[in-house]
Design brief:
The structure is a single chain. The protein has helices at residues 3-7, 23-39, 85-92, 105-122, 210-222, 261-272, 279-286, 290-296, 299-308, 310-317, 322-333, 387-395, 433-436, 442-456, and strands at 14-19, 43-49, 127-133, 136-142, 145-150, 156-158, 160-163, 184-185, 203-206, 228-232, 337-341, 343-350, 353-360, 363-369, 371-374, 414-416, 422-427. It has a 6-stranded mixed sheet, covered by helices on one side. A 5-stranded parallel sheet has the order 8-15-9-10-11. It is an alpha/beta fold. The protein has 14 helices and 17 strands. Helix 2 crosses helix 14 and helix 5 crosses helix 11 (322-333). The chain is globular.
């Protein structure tokens, strides 16, 4: 929608409907409100989510103080142009915070919710905000904008919709456990989650990433007899952030272009040949350039990266707080956490939980456990997408990105239909992974949020 389209409305406010209440949706709402107030542009913003709660989302709803942010506080501001915003907020609430602190995830959820309320007050003269507690069942883009269908309420009509639902969590056991069982926790962050898991029986966690680290800490702390077995295809655990100041600069500049995964790996080897210990500096230096380099790769090369390199990149890129990593290493040394590369072939429920058949590099083995907890993270667009995204695919209003991680978008984040034309629907966060690769951390999401706010309101 052009700027002329937005202004030729007889002076009525721009109508924006935002679907999704987690960090991505909240950051989008914050930047839309800020753009309305700064640019003095009238807006009617409708926030829609089945919980009715904007702010924490699943990632930051935890109340366990052991669950820490995996990024220093100085990089978690909601605003690129005010990097100290989150740190100041934390200090004002009595926390001993500085730029390098790793604060509780739950605190960040509170920060997002309070920042949203603050921007609402600031924009009150220009923005009307409405919260709708309902489930969005469909989005129908058309010439006049987009219609949002709800499960209970009347349809909403907007000039622009923002889809910030995330990619959802994968469920690798859906084929093995078609029926419900109370001892399988498909999503540890909803409902009671893992509250009842620590009964002293062994626990199998699917996935060995950051979520596993938090789950293992909570379960083992709750019961001194519990042993956690964590499995993933590679058996890799996130590396730690380094305490203290970052290393001085001095690595070669990232390449201006890359035609293959091999080109990228050769650059990495050259950069770290003299000092492999500088891998953190290397990863951090690459981060701003990854969207550009990702787009330069042909689709087969992107798939090759995802299949062969991505997990190794992830454990170095998405690092754990030093305290969290130290705690996990202590659990491993004590034998209370066992991490192994393995795939689950079969689960046989019994009166005590499950007998799990695993394939490991050394062969097949059977593991008796009392509980199974899923911590595998994002699902892909081709792997049972949520009904809302699936509906967009089925109607042709959207299409999967070329590697099937999310939704195909233009460079501005607008959804591309089956015909290649942009629709008045923006996505941000996890649903853009296939297009820009780095799209799940706050620094990337807040930049996307600011850009779409300016575009949606004609800035």
């Amino acid at each position: 929608m052009s700027s002329a389209d937005r202004t030729d409305r007889g002076g009525r406010p721009t109508r924006v409907a935002l679907v999704g209440a987690g960090a991505s949706g909240t950051l989008a709402a914050v930047h839309l409100l800020r753009a309305a107030a700064t640019g003095r542009r009238p807006m009617r913003l409708t926030l829609v989510d089945r919980t009715g709660e904007f702010g924490p989302g699943l990632a930051y709803r935890t109340g366990d103080p052991r669950h820490l942010l995996n990024t220093p506080a100085g990089k978690m501001s909601a605003f690129d142009d005010d990097p100290g915003h989150f740190v100041r907020w934390s200090r004002a609430r009595g926390h001993d915070a500085d730029d390098g602190a790793f604060l509780p995830r739950g605190d960040y959820g509170t920060y997002l919710a309070e920042t949203l309320r603050s921007e609402e007050r600031r924009a009150v003269e220009f923005a009307e905000v409405r919260r709708v507690t309902d489930t969005v069942t469909g989005l129908a883009p058309h010439e006049e904008g987009v219609t949002i269908r709800l499960s209970r309420g009347a349809p909403l009509r907007a000039d622009t919709a923002v889809l910030a639902t995330g990619a959802g969590g994968g469920d690798p056991l859906s084929r093995l456990l078609p029926g419900h069982t109370s001892r399988y926790v498909a999503d540890p962050w909803t409902g009671d989650g893992i509250a009842g898991v620590a009964d002293g029986s062994p626990v199998l966690v699917l996935g060995t990433g950051l979520s596993m680290m938090d789950i293992a800490a909570s379960i083992t702390d709750a019961n001194p007899r519990t042993v956690v077995h964590a499995v993933s295809r590679h058996g890799l655990v996130p590396r730690p952030h380094a305490p203290g100041a970052p290393a001085p600069a001095g690595l070669p500049e990232p390449p201006r272009s890359a035609a293959s995964v091999g080109d990228l790996l050769r650059y990495a080897r050259r950069s770290l040949a003299d000092d492999p210990g500088r891998w953190r500096e290397f990863v951090d230096r690459m981060r701003p350039h990854t969207p550009r380099l990702w787009r330069q790769l042909a689709v087969p090369e992107r798939r090759r990266f995802l299949d062969r390199v991505n997990r190794y990149w992830d454990v170095h890129r998405h690092r754990a707080a030093p305290t969290t990593h130290d705690h996990v290493r202590a659990l491993i040394r004590a034998g209370r956490l066992v991490v192994r590369p393995a795939t689950v072939d079969r689960l046989r429920p019994n009166e005590n939980g499950f007998e799990v058949d695993l394939t490991t590099p050394s062969g097949h083995r059977s593991l008796p456990v009392g509980w199974v907890v899923n911590a595998t993270g994002f699902r892909t667009a081709g792997d049972r997408p949520d009904p809302l995204v699936r509906g967009l695919f089925e109607t042709g209003a959207a299409r999967p990105d070329p590697v099937g991680l999310g939704v195909a978008t233009g460079v501005d984040g607008r959804v591309l239909g089956r015909d290649g034309r942009p629709r008045p629907v923006y996505v941000l966060g996890a649903l853009r992974r296939g297009e820009v690769f780095e799209s799940t951390a706050v620094p990337e999401i807040r930049a996307q949020a600011a850009a779409l706010a300016g575009a949606a309101l004609g800035g």
